[in-house]
Records
---
Amino acid sequence: MPTVSVSTSEHLEVRDVTEEVTALLPEDADGVATVFVRHTTAGVTVNEAESRLLGDLSDALDGLVPDDGWAHDEIDDNADSHVRAMLVGPSVTVPVSDGQPDLGAWQSILLVECDGPRTRTLQVCPH
């Protein structure tokens, strides 16, 4: 299964990974591809990759989920990251035509880092 490593630099960060995903698709791929992040404190979604919107998404997740006050924090102090990642979800499935994600004009595949900085592994499964 093709994978790509993506490094992040912030605790809560949204990063466009469309190019990295596209590079893993066979040139003749047609159908769909599932993009899955193999971590419990990161998520994947599809939305616009405009820089202010990416910041707005980070701010929204930060506002929805408080940083502290969670029972799991007694173990490794990152319960907020787990909850934020659950809200986003671990995968997306996108249509693929001629080896390219067949996204809308403003759509991109986004990695949502909730416990960075880290290096994350994304699996790309063309079907």
---
Amino acid sequence: MKIERLSQDKIRIFLTFDDLLERGIHKDDMWREPPKLHELFLEMMEQAYTELGFDASGPLAVEVLAMPAQGMVIIITRGKVNEQRGAAEEEDELEDDIYDMEVTMEQTDVVMYAFRDFEDVIAAAAQLQSSGLSEGGVLYAYKGKYILAIDPAELEQNRFHAVIALLAEYGEATSVTFAVLEEYGKTIMPENAIREICSHFLS
């Protein structure tokens, strides 16, 4: 579980599928196990407080983005507490130990892996091409890393997991969302990145 502060009132939590499995939550059952998810949320809030001093009191907006290969990105934004509430009302809320949350959920199918070094991007592209995937892929630069994004429509269903395994060998799952990449990332190769990398950097 990785936690980072985005602003004074906003944090981002990245959970891999391994993180979820360690806590007894299978990715297909993510939204069918309320007690386990409640425990997971409490654990996340404790860790956010310990690591970042993020106090999750008051109303919270929780955005959950499920990604097919990487896991889950959870963005938590703390709202402004209404200062006109009475002390008795605040005590009641503390006793309940229930967070006032507004949850929105999204799912993206785009597979994204980050690479620290361009040599790793070349090595991954070479392996992908030799395994039969020579078309597709968009390459971005974002915060000192290279990120390869692949639309699953470009992958045959039976080769999906093999491609993920290859990408994981050279890169790492990233918590950056595709929307953030599109807006803030620098597009290096807008299409057929795998073929372009291989043709330019492999003799």
